[in-house]
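TODO from last week: model Response regulator.
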Amino acid sequence: MIRVLIADDQTIVRAGFAALLAAQPDIEVVAQGGDGREAVRLTEAHRPDVVLMDIRMPGMDGIEATRRILSDAANAGTRVLVLTTFDVDEYVYDALSAGASGFLLKDSTADDLVSAVRVVARGDALLAPQVTGRLIREFARQRRARPRPAPELENLTARETEVLGLIAGGLSNAEIAERLVVSEHTVKTHVARVFTKLSLRDRAQAVVLAYESGLVVPGGNE
């Protein structure tokens, strides 16, 4: 069972998400909260697999709550899926920088939401197609500043560095395998080693690190 916590300041929205997810045979809604502080407290109490986190909430917002939840080593098994009505650059960037594994707009379909929970729960990253381009443009804006040094990249082999760059370019394992002319199993091995060496939770964090470090320049792989 995928154990889910829902954090949203709108009672009707929380109830709707809860009813939808609870109807799935492999998902259990373990708790619901109305603000960021409550989300942090409930995560400590229930240690869910996935937190559905609204961004705009009174008091502590969803981004700060995400940062606090994922900075706690006791929540190593928890993933955060950010839900919002705002597909604005700063929200996407800040949420992923805080450690969120996914970003989905609230006007997505019910099937998309259920699928997103499953994707994030198994350790993969998820971005709504509507915000992917905006994310890259935000990275481009951020790159006007000096790249953040990432000495841990020196631990990667040349092939692992190449794989990281392709992940940041949005390629799937199958697409990377085709690009490098290797098996998908080989790519999965490289990806696992990259994540281990760089202490990454998922592909979302890999994208953030690749761009912030200057390893990948927006538009450079086009």
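Done. The chain has a mean pLDDT of 86.
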